[in-house]
Inverse folding.
C-alpha cells in the first residue's frame, strides 16, 4: 500500500492532479472537500451544519473530516493505496491520520507539496468561480480568507511532514501535464 498526501494552498491544483494520479497508480482519491460538498448537495444534517463554515472559507471541525476519512479507509478494497487531497489541513488532523494508519499497519509514504504564488491562486479560483458555482470561489475576500487560513492553520502541517521525512516540494506553476509529470517522478521514487 502507498499513501500519498497532496498538499498545497487552495487552488494549487491538488484536486486537479489527484484525480489523474489516482487513476494512473490505482489509488483511492479521498478529497475531504468533495465529500463535504456531497453532504451539502444531498442536504444531509451534517451538510447543513457545514455549509456556512465552508462558504466563509474557514475549516470545518477536525473530528468531522477525521471520521469521514476513517470510514473510507475501512471500507475500501482492491486499491494500491490512498491519495489524500486536502487532508490533513491541521496538525491535529495530521497526527490523527498518522495514528489511524499505524493502527492499520500503514504509514504516510509521501507528502507532495504544490508551490504556487498567491496571485496565481487568486486568478485560478476566480476563473473556477465562473463554472463551479462554489460559494467559496465567488468572492475575493473569501478567497483571501482561505489563503490566510491555509497560512495560519494548514502550513504548519509541513513541519510535521519534514519530521516524518516524507516531503517533496513540487513547482505547481506550469501546464497541468508538466506538473503531472513532475509529481509522477516523486511517486515512482517511493513505489
Ligand atoms: P477543497 O475542496 O479542498 O478546496 P480547494 O483547496 O480550493 O481545492 P483544490 O486546491 O483542490 O482546487 P484545485 O487546486 O484542484 O476544500 C474546500 C473547503 O472544504 C475548505 O475551504 C474547507 O472549508 C473544507 N475542508 C476540506 N477539507 C477540509 C479539512 N481536511 N479540514 C477542514 N475543512 C476542510 O483547483 C483550482 C483551480 O485551478 C481549478 O479550476 C483548476 O482547473 C485550476 N488549475 C489546476 N491546475 C492548474 C494549472 N496548472 N494551471 C492553471 N490552472 C490550474
Amino acid at each position: 500500500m502507498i499513501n500519498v498526501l497532496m498538499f498545497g494552498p487552495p487552488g494549487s491544483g491538488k484536486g486537479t492532479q489527484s484525480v489523474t494520479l489516482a487513476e494512473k497508480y490505482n489509488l483511492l482519491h479521498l478529497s475531504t472537500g468533495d465529500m463535504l460538498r456531497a453532504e451539502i448537495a444531498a442536504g444531509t444534517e451534517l451538510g447543513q451544519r457545514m455549509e456556512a463554515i465552508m462558504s466563509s472559507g474557514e475549516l470545518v471541525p477536525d473530528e468531522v473530516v477525521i471520521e469521514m476519512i476513517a470510514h473510507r479507509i475501512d471500507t475500501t478494497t482492491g486499491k494500491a493505496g490512498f491519495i489524500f487531497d486536502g487532508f490533513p489541513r491541521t496538525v491535529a488532523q495530521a497526527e490523527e491520520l498518522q495514528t489511524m494508519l499505524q493502527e492499520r499497519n500503514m504509514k504516510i509514504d509521501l507528502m507532495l507539496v504544490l508551490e504556487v504564488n498567491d496571485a496565481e491562486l487568486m486568478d485560478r479560483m476566480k476563473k473556477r468561480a465562473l463554472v463551479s458555482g462554489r460559494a467559496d470561489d465567488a468572492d475575493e475576500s473569501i478567497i483571501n480568507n482561505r489563503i490566510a487560513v491555509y497560512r495560519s492553520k494548514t502550513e504548519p502541517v509541513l513541519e510535521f511532514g519534514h519530521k516524518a521525512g516524507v516531503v517533496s516540494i513540487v513547482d505547481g506553476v506550469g501546464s497541468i501535464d508538466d506538473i503531472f509529470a513532475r509529481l509522477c517522478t516523486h511517486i515512482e521514487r517511493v513505489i
Notes: The two ends are 9 Å apart (CA to CA). Residues 10-16, 32-33, 36, 53-54, 57-60, 65, 86-87, 89, 93, 124, 128, 136, 146, 176, 179 surround BIS(adenosine)-5'-tetraphosphate (CB under 6 Å). The CA atoms of residues 53 and 96 lie 22 Å apart. The first helix runs from residue 14 to 25.
